[in-house]
Design brief:
By secondary structure, the chain is an alpha+beta fold. The chain contains 6 helices and 3 strands. It is rod-shaped.
């Protein structure tokens, strides 16, 4: 029996109906004791992970640096959180540090804007 090239095999599969192709896959799985579903499931999981990234709902507001208006940044951190003066100062002095964790997009963007207005460098993660 002559070996078929990959291109020739693809040509043969292109001529099959879906029922014939399904029967072939079952026979292939039985003959070689493999499953064709595993790669499809893995691709599906990768697609789901990609969707999660696009639909991110929880954001962390990270203070990267206080800048030269440190006192104003400390005041802003206090306004955004329930931290006292000493705790807010510790957050600012410990930059990079999370100011808010698990905030929704709107809250995170408002916090970022407020901190940047105070002179800080901020990122959302």
């Amino acid at each position: 029996m002559a070996k078929l090239s990959t291109e020739e095999l693809l040509e043969q599969f292109a001529g099959l109906t879906l029922v014939e192709l399904s029967e072939f896959v079952k026979a292939f799985e039985e003959k070689f004791e493999v499953t064709a579903a595993a790669p499809v499931a893995a691709a599906g999981a990768g697609g789901a992970a990609a969707e999660e990234v696009e639909e991110k709902v929880d954001f962390d507001v990270i203070l990267e640096a206080a800048g030269d208006k440190k006192i104003q940044v400390i005041k802003t951190v206090r306004e955004l959180t329930s931290l006292g003066l000493g705790e807010a100062k510790a957050v600012v002095d410990g930059a990079p540090k999370a100011v808010l964790e698990g905030a929704n997009k709107e809250t995170a963007e408002k916090a970022k804007a407020a901190l940047e207005e105070a002179g800080a460098t901020v990122t959302l993660k």
